[in-house]
Amino acid sequence: MHCPFCRHGDSRVVDSRTADDGSSIRRRRQCPECGRRFTTTETASLAVLKRSGASEPFSREKIVNGVRKACQGRPVSEDDLALLAQGVEETLRATGSAEFDAHEIGLAILGPLRELDEVAYLRFASVYQAFDSLDDFEAAITALRAEHATSGDADPVASEPEVAADR
């Protein structure tokens, strides 16, 4: 680690502590050349492998922006989106892998988004599960209804007004 004051190429760790609930390490360092102390924070970086083969750093903000589009017009707050993105990042870190396919991240979003808002889930799933027809939407809705029936929850989709077929 280069000293930020004299640019000496080495430093000595004086103190180490975990920070941010254990997701990063705060280190207090001292330069042997100039004697000044400075603090560094170390985190394990996650990388996203794009379809093009390019790799870029993981970004919670990109998750929030993508999910925000699916949640447009839905009763979902910015705090809800931030918590969802944090949860997805924690899930990815828990796997122990440092690089993820962009499609894997999209699929990792589906579970928490389903719990947050089912309409937003269907919108997002239509992209990441490559819905090709109305049958795909019907199958997803049927699965949601079946889950509600087994859990005893009221079916939010059934309470929507029906569209008359013979108009």
Q: What's the structural blueprint in terms of helices and strands?
A:
Elements: E1 12-19, E2 24-30, E3 37-43, E4 47-49, E5 55-57, H1 60-70, H2 78-94, E6 99-101, H3 102-116, H4 118-128, H5 134-151
Parallel strand pairs: 4-6
Antiparallel strand pairs: 1-2, 2-3, 4-5
Helix pairs in contact: 1-2, 2-3, 3-4
Question: Could you characterize the architecture of this molecule?
Answer:
12% of the residues are buried. This protein has helices at residues 60-70, 78-94, 102-116, 118-128, 134-151; strands spanning 12-19, 24-30, 37-43, 47-49, 55-57, 99-101. α1 (60-70) crosses α2 (78-94), α2 (78-94) packs across α3 (102-116) and α3 packs antiparallel against α4 (118-128). Strands 1-2-3 form a three-stranded antiparallel β-sheet, with no helix packed on it. It has a three-stranded mixed β-sheet with strand order 5-4-6. It contains five helices and six strands, in the order βββββααβααα.
| Structural class category | alpha+beta
- The backbone outline, from C-alpha atoms, is elongated
Low-pLDDT ranges: 157-167
The count of helical stretches stands at 5
Helix-strand pattern: EEEEEHHEHHH
- Estimated helix fraction: 40-55%
Terminal Cα span: 73 Å
Q: Say how many strands there are.
A: 6
Kindly report the average pLDDT value: 85
Gyration radius, in Å: 23 Å
Strand order of the largest sheet: 1-2-3
> Beta fraction of the residues?
15-25%
Q: Describe the largest sheet.
A: 3 strands, antiparallel
